[in-house]
């Protein structure tokens, strides 16, 4: 039977049922309500014959009651939940087989075996069931017509089953899709809400860009956008960024699309006068919606996550600055200088250019620092740094190595060593010159000078550490020559430096091993009577023999060991005086002359150590003359004078050693607490050579007389010298001609003899 064979009444009835079912479905009355309308509609059509309709849904192999408005409730309940399979009644079997099952007599059909009783008890005799199968082959439901008595379907019945199964499918599918949509959009909403939350917490801005660099979408905090977010879709990478950056960004987009791998780009933009550093990370955006168009449009999309990393960058920059720059002066620090020097050495090796390292140390900075206080010392260092920076060229790097040590690195586009020496000398002179003007501290002007040591980079293959050591050695040579000058490194300097280091190391052990001792060189009056003795330190090394004081004293001064050495001298001097006193060999005015190092004045240890030893041995300060040099008086005026004044009040006397070799005028010395001048050996030696020698000695003696200084001549070696000098008004004489420096025991013998012969 087809539609055209239906009579008008049937057609209208079917039409009305179909319409109502669809209307309800469209209205959204719900699946059950729509299906009940459908069942009732068919039952009405079949009213005369007493057919009953049922719709069962299939849920994971189980029957689920949907609509069967006229079937007995208990029956419906009983089959709700039945697992489908062979012999599970007409519906269960139809759904299981995915085909129509027509049972004309429930009482006899084996398919109903298990449910027969149930069906018969509820007055059901026949059941024809049709599965409703979706286009994706999912079995959704069964549509069945029951009759109370056994019966076969007519053509009309078959037509109804087909037609309403199709309608059922439409409606169930409609609801199924609606449900799916609700579920999906619910899920989408959840995902969206999560994404929104994530984007709120993540400091990133997310952009979707197409492969041409056009902005497609944006998520995040729009306040950071350079343009209003609604206009972003009209923008592209090339319209928002400078050409160079835009090109970089485009390359990253292309690489992302080509490799399908995340790319990272750090880039800077300037906004409102502020530098903002971003880190961009990319991913290919798989977008099914866009993919659908892709075949014809060719569009591809990239997700660009941009994070503001300005703060992190600044912290990193600051850390780099701290690691590479000196905090006080802002100059590059030692590490930076070493790295720079390494690069310079590489460049020299590569390009056949030349260079130099200038090591710079402020003369006497420790004294300045101690006397001014560290704040002012720091201020001076900053001024020094400024001067250095302003006196060097761009190609020269000034760095602070620490303390008052600086280094200047020179890169010279030269290949000729002579030209290099010339150029470096010019730089060194320029640096020395920039300290001609005094520096300011505490409202006073301070004259500061520097010593420069230069190591040339005139061949490839030199090492950073070696160069710094060489420049350092040269700098010390400049210091030894009096400072305020520059000196080039020479091999001999290195040997000296090594020797100094070795002696310093050995000195520590030698002090413990008692290899140091005080010797005494007698001083006599012009009539030959004992006047006193100069105490001279001796280092007798068991292997090397005597190491001269001229060699080890400067090392001891630099390393600080001088204090221990001076303690040895003071202690043994005191022992000597006590011993002579005990033996009754101490003439009434006999004095020991002790050499005092400027370091002891600077570090203010002198007064304390002197009173310690004198107190310990119960001696009178008047037994001691302290020998100092002119240099000390010139250099450390204020503090030295105060200490001298103080010691002199206690009874110590002061002698100016090596008088005549410095620059002090007698008139100046008169104002100082000085008692004695020791005419330097060089003048005594000149007595024999020139007439002028005697004239100098004479004038010193004449002036000293007026100013009330005693005069001592040292280094008297010959009878000739002795004869000339003894005729003059000198307080005493000292030299090999009278006696060589001797150990303590020998001095005791010497004095015994001297006193015996004096009577
Ligand atoms: P100085 O204070 O000028 O000591 C005199 C030096 O001249 C001594 O050298 C002495 O041995 C030497 N001398 C003595 N008579 C003659 C002579 O007739 N002809 C010649 N050519 N030389 C003579 P020495 O002992 O080698 O000491 C050298 C320098 O070492 C001293 O020069 C002094 O500056 C320093 N020194 C020695 N002992 C000490 C000390 O205990 N403390 C300090 N701070 N310095 C010391
Ligand atoms: Ca001396
Ligand atoms: Ca001397």
Report the radius of gyration as a whole number of Å.
56 Å
Report the CATH architecture of the largest domain: Alpha-Beta Barrel
Summarize the biggest pleated sheet.
Answer: 10 strands, mixed
CATH class of the largest domain: Alpha Beta
Helix content: 40-55%
The residue ranges in which pLDDT falls below 50 over 5 or more consecutive positions are 291-295
Would you give the CATH topology of the largest domain?
Answer: TIM Barrel
List the ions, cofactors and other small molecules found in this model.
ligand C2E, calcium ion
Number of strands: 27
Beta-strand share of residues? 15-25%
Q: From the helix content, strand content and strand pairing, which structural class follows?
A: alpha+beta
Name the CATH superfamily assignment of the largest domain.
Answer: EAL domain
Note the total helix count.
27
Number of domains: 4
Average residue-wise pLDDT: 90
Distance between the termini: 171 Å
Shape designation: rod-shaped
Description:
This protein is α+β, with helices and mostly antiparallel strands. The protein folds into four domains: 8-180, GAF domain (Beta-Lactamase, 2-Layer Sandwich); 202-315, Beta-Lactamase, CATH 3.30.450.20; 325-489, Reverse transcriptase/Diguanylate cyclase domain (Alpha-Beta Plaits); 503-750, TIM Barrel. 49% of the residues lie in helices and 23% in strands. It has 27 helices and 27 strands. The strands form five sheets. Strands 18, 19, 20, 21, 22, 23, 24, 25, 26 and 27 form a ten-stranded mixed sheet that branches. It starts with 7 loop residues before the first helix and ends with a helix. The structure holds ligand C2E and calcium ion (2 copies). Residues 534, 595, 627, 657 line the site of one calcium ion.
């Amino acid at each position: 039977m087809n539609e055209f064979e239906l009579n008008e009444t049937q057609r209208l009835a079917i039409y009305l049922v179909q319409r109502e079912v669809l209307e309800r479905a469209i209205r959204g009355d719900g699946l059950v309500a729509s299906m009940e309308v459908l069942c009732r509609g068919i039952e009405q059509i079949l009213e005369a014959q007493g057919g009953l309709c049922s719709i069962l849904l299939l849920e994971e192999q189980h029957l689920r009651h949907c609509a069967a408005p006229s079937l007995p409730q208990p029956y419906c309940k009983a089959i709700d939940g039945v697992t489908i399979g062979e012999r599970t009644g007409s519906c269960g079997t139809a759904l299981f087989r995915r085909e129509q099952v027509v049972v004309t007599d429930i009482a006899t059909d084996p398919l109903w075996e298990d449910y027969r009783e149930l069906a018969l008890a509820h007055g059901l005799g026949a059941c024809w069931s049709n599965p409703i199968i979706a286009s994706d082959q999912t079995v959704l439901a069964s549509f069945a017509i029951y009759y109370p008595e056994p019966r076969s379907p007519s053509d009309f019945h078959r037509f109804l089953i087909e037609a309403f199964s199709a309608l059922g499918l439409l409606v169930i599918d409609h609801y199924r899709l609606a449900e799916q949509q609700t579920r999906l959009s619910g899920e989408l909403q959840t995902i969206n809400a999560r994404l929104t939350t994530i984007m709120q917490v993540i400091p990133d801005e997310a952009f979707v860009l197409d492969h041409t660099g056009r902005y497609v979408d944006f998520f995040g905090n729009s306040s950071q956008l350079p343009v209003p977010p609604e206009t972003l879709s009209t923008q592209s990478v090339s319209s928002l960024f400078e050409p160079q950056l835009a090109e970089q960004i485009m390359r990253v987009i292309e690489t992302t699309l080509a490799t399908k791998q995340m790319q990272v780009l750090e880039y800077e933009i300037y906004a409102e006068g502020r530098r903002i550093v971003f880190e961009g990370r990319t991913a290919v955006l798989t977008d099914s919606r866009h993919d659908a168009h892709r075949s014809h449009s060719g569009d591809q999309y990239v997700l660009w996550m941009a994070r503001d990393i300005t703060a992190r960058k600044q912290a990193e920059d600051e850390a780099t600055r701290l690691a590479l720059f000196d905090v006080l002066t802002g100059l590059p620090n030692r590490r930076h200088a070493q790295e720079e020097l390494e690069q310079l050495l590489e460049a020299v090796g590569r390009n056949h250019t030349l260079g130099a390292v200038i090591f710079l140390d402020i003369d006497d900075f420790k004294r300045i620092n101690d006397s001014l206080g560290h704040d002012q010392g720091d201020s001076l260092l900053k001024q020094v740094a400024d001067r250095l920076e302003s006196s060097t060229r761009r190609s020269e790097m000034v760095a602070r190595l620490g303390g008052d040590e600086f280094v200047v690195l020179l890169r010279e586009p030269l290949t000729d060593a002579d030209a290099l020496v010339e150029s470096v000398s010019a730089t060194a002179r320029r640096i020395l010159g920039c300290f001609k003007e005094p520096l300011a501290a505490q409202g006073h002007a301070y004259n500061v000078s520097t010593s420069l040591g230069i190591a040339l980079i005139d061949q490839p293959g030199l090492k950073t550490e070696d160069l710094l050591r060489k420049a350092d050695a040269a700098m010390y040579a400049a210091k030894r020559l009096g400072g305020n000058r520059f000196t080039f490194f020479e091999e001999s300097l290195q040997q000296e430096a090594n020797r100094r280091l070795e002696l310093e190391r050995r000195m520590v052990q030698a002090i413990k091993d008692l290899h140091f001792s005080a010797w005494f060189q007698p001083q006599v009056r012009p009539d030959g009577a004992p006047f006193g003795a100069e105490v001279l330190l001796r280092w007798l090394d068991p292997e090397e023999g005597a190491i001269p004081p001229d060699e080890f004293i400067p090392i001891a001064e630099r390393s600080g060991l001088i204090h221990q050495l001076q303690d040895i001298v003071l202690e043994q001097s005191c022992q000597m005086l006590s011993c002579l006193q005990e033996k009754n060999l101490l003439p009434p005015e006999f004095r020991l002359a002790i050499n005092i190092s400027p370091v002891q004045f600077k570090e203010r240890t002198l007064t304390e150590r002197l009173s310690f030893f004198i107190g310990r041995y119960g001696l009178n300060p008047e037994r001691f003359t302290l020998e100092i040099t002119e240099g000390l008086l010139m250099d450390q005026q204020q503090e030295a004078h105060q200490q001298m004044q103080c010691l002199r009040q206690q009874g110590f006397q002061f002698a100016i050693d090596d008088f005549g070799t410095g620059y002090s005028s007698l008139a100046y010395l008169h104002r100082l607490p000085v008692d004695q001048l020791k005419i330097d050996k060089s003048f005594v030696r000149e007595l024999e050579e020139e007439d002028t020698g005697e004239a100098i000695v004479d004038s010193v003696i004449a002036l000293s007389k007026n100013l009330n200084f005693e005069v001592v001549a040292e280094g008297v070696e010959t009878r000739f010298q002795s004869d000339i000098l003894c005729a003059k008004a000198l307080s005493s004489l000292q030299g090999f001609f009278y006696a060589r420096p001797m150990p303590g025991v020998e001095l005791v013998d010497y004095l015994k003899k001297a006193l015996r012969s004096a009577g």
